[in-house]
């Protein structure tokens, strides 16, 4: 492998010192399931790695005044098995359960998945769904930015070289039910061909509030506001579901334009949406 | 080459070495400790041949920097059983005929070991999920799943 130095800070302060000193020449190692591969392929050539997985303050999940806060170095396995996540934001558990393989889920982290800014990042549609906000920290201070603003295209983010993604803050609607589904070429280790996440709040038989996010359709996962507006106030029945699916097909066709994958994805979204709605239906009954 | 001190537990033994900062855990285990039971397959985290347990959980050692394992506990296939005293999972693999060329076997055994630690009575489906990160190019998957079921029954006794 190419030459690269390695640092293993144990506190956030130490990590911020290193990032400030290293500027853009240092790269954060937050699990390594992508970065170690990219280093070997020489897609990146940092002077040093700043391994943040030994910082205990960057691990864990907590609930605070209705918000769910996930620390950046929390692994997919930890997120998928968290009681808070399973109860309050099951769409994120669905997403983290199907990342890569058990090995990848034990090593890869939520923070790494965000910062990589892949169009197919498995956890990101579910994070965007709950209005995910990234908390970035540097020696200069701390700022919060919506994930949809943080992600700026394939592999691009608004994170400065001296900034560390400390945590992601999610705001689910109180009493909501949610689900996520990903379609890959096979079950394990497949990159998402298309994925979606839906959150609904029910008032009797009606949908009081809705959020919808899609992945692998645009350079980054995004909120499908057209679909959300359609769902608001509708009866949750077959007619609504079929209309939603028709709208989702149009949206996907619009977003992908003449891309080679468009004919496949605009049909595939129907199956993805049905699967998500089934999951929500099952969870609603509990 | 940049060198740093690495100290970790491998198969129950505390190990301290000066090693380059740019090597993977896989390289450290094979080239420095000569624990060659851990195999390199794809080198990309797709095949699971390099699976080891890091703090009890299966990971792809080809995607872990060696120094990331500092202060942690690694278990390789050499820490599971010996030729004289096989682990019940290894016995079950032999009994069920779950070994063909053998290249994927160390990773499969470790994935099974981690599963049975957490879930001593897995369903067939749970076994399939647990080994979903391990490829067998001889494609003897059914016998591997049979072996894990057999191991669960043996250990349950």
UniProtKB/TrEMBL annotation, chain A:
Record-level Gene Ontology MF annotations: FAD binding; oxidoreductase activity
Pfam families noted in UniProt: CO_deh_flav_C, FAD_binding_5
Keyword vocabulary terms for this entry: FAD, Flavoprotein, Oxidoreductase
SMART domains documented for this protein: CO_deh_flav_C
InterPro entries linked to this entry: CO_DH_flav_C (IPR005107), CO_DH_flav_C_dom_sf (IPR036683), Diverse_Substr_Oxidored (IPR051312), FAD-bd_PCMH (IPR016166), FAD-bd_PCMH-like_sf (IPR036318), FAD-bd_PCMH_sub1 (IPR016167), FAD-bd_PCMH_sub2 (IPR016169), Mopterin_DH_FAD-bd (IPR002346)
Key word Cytoplasm present: no
Start and end residues of each FAD-binding PCMH-type domain: 1-175
PANTHER family: XANTHINE DEHYDROGENASE SUBUNIT C-RELATED
Name under which the protein is recorded: FAD-binding PCMH-type domain-containing protein
UniProtKB/TrEMBL annotation, chain B:
Every 2Fe-2S ferredoxin-type domain range: 4-80
Key word Phosphoprotein present: no
InterPro entries reported in the protein's UniProt record: 2Fe-2S-bd, 2Fe-2S-bd_dom_sf, 2Fe-2S_ferredoxin-like_sf, 2Fe-2S_ferredoxin-type, 2Fe2S_fd_BS, Beta-grasp_dom_sf, Diverse_Oxidoreductases
Coiled coil: none
Pathway: Alkaloid degradation; nicotine degradation
Pfam families per record: Fer2, Fer2_2
Gene Ontology terms, MF aspect: 2 iron, 2 sulfur cluster binding; metal ion binding; oxidoreductase activity
Record keywords, A-Z: 2Fe-2S, Iron, Iron-sulfur, Metal-binding, Oxidoreductase
Domain of life assignment: Bacteria
Descriptive protein name: (2Fe-2S)-binding protein
Organism: Carboxydothermus islandicus
Classification of source organism: Bacteria, Bacillati, Bacillota, Clostridia, Thermoanaerobacterales
């Amino acid at each position: 492998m190419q030459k690269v130095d390695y640092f293993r800070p144990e506190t956030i302060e130490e990590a911020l010192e290193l990032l400030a000193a290293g500027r853009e020449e240092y790269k954060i190692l937050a699990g390594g399931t992508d970065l170690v591969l990219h280093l070997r392929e020489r897609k990146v050539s940092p002077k040093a790695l700043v391994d943040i997985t030994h910082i205990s303050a960057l691990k864990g999940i907590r609930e605070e005044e209705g918000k769910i806060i996930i620390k950046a170095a929390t692994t997919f396995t930890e997120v998928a098995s968290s009681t808070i996540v399973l109860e309050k934001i099951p769409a994120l558990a669905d997403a983290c359960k199907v990342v890569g393989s058990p090995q990848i889920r034990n090593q890869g982290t939520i923070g790494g998945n965000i910062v990589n800014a892949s169009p197919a990042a498995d956890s990101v549609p579910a994070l965007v769904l709950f209005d995910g906000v990234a908390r970035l920290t540097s020696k200069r201070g701390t700022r919060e930015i919506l994930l949809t603003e943080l992600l700026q295209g394939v592999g691009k983010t608004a994170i400065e070289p001296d900034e560390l993604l400390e945590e992601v803050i999610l705001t689910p609607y109180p009493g909501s039910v949610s689900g996520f589904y990903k379609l890959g070429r096979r079950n394990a280790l497949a990159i998402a061909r298309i994925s979606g996440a839906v959150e609904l709040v029910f008032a009797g038989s009606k949908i009081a509030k809705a959020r919808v996010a899609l992945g692998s359709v645009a350079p980054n996962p995004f909120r499908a506001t057209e679909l959300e507006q359609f769902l608001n106030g509708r009866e949750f029945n077959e007619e609504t579901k079929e209309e939603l699916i028709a709208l989702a097909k149009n949206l996907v066709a619009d977003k992908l334009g003449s891309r080679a994958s468009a004919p496949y994805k605009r049909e595939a979204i129907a199956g993805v949406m049905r699967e998500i709605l089934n999951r929500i239906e099952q969870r609603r009954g509990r | 080459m940049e060198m740093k001190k690495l100290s970790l537990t491998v198969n129950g033994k505390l190990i301290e070495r000066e090693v380059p900062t740019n090597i993977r855990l896989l390289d450290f285990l094979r080239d420095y400790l000569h624990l060659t039971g851990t195999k390199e397959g794809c080198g990309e985290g797709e095949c699971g041949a390099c699976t080891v347990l890091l703090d009890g959980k299966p990971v792809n050692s080809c995607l872990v920097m060696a120094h990331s394992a500092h202060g942690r506990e690694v278990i390789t296939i050499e820490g599971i059983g010996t030729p004289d005293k096989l682990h019940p999972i290894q016995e079950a693999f032999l009994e069920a005929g779950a070994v063909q060329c053998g290249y994927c076997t160390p990773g499969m055994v470790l994935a099974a070991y981690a599963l049975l630690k957490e879930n001593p009575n897995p369903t067939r489906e749970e076994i399939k999920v647990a080994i979903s990160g391990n490829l067998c190019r001889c494609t003897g998957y059914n016998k591997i799943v049979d072996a894990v079921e057999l191991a669960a029954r043996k250990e349950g006794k």
